[in-house]
Design a protein that fits this description.
By secondary structure, the chain is mostly beta strands. The protein is built from 3 helices and 14 strands.
């Protein structure tokens, strides 16, 4: 298994629509304003956060239960910026829609710009033949409010191709998050 380079990412995006929308360069500035970068990097792809957020709230004193998640635990926000309360988290989604090839496993790591501010990005692996918008979780580990910027880079996707095709892909299993759009809450 090896990590895939910028050449492979560009080729796959053009040929198989691996990532849509796709940016073949690192974008660091928009309309003369510096941004947190997104687009192809040497061995990965920096994704953007959309402007759709679900901010965790404890207004109803719910128990966080992954088998019976209370959607009232979130406040929906559509904005260019999201303020995450201290020691809390928010969900968002990528601008980009992914179609992962059968021989590829994709891992996501948060960008250092956010990590250096105590904001952790968490995403589970994108399995072979999974497709959809990626749901992002931002944890604010600080005791201060933290800001996330929509339509700017937030995390990097790394693509690993196996020497052997898997017997059963995410699509074959009928994975519950297949084809997700928007910010998707836990499902059982």
């Amino acid at each position: 298994m090896s990590i895939k380079s910028d050449n492979w990412i560009i080729e796959q995006a053009e040929k198989n629509q691996l990532i849509d929308p796709f940016e073949a360069n690192q974008i660091r500035e928009v309309d003369g304003n510096k941004i947190v970068s997104y687009g192809v990097s040497s061995y990965g792809y920096d994704v953007r956060c959309s402007n759709e957020f679900k901010i965790f709230t404890n207004t109803f004193s719910s128990v966080v239960d992954p088998k019976n998640f209370d959607s009232n635990s979130f406040v929906d926000v559509v904005a260019d910026e999201c303020i995450i309360p201290p020691n809390s988290f928010a969900l968002a989604r990528t601008v980009e829609y992914f179609k992962i090839p059968r021989s590829v496993l994709t891992l996501c790591l948060g960008k250092s710009t956010y990590a250096r501010c105590g904001i952790i990005v968490n995403v589970t692996p994108l399995e072979p033949e999974w497709e959809g918008h990626v749901t992002l979780e931002f944890s604010n580990t600080t005791n201060l409010p933290a800001k996330i910027y929509a339509n700017e880079g937030v995390a990097q996707m790394l693509f690993f191709e196996s020497d052997d095709i898997c017997k059963t892909s995410y699509k074959d299993r009928g994975g519950k998050y297949q084809g997700q759009t928007g910010v998707t809450l836990p499902k059982t």
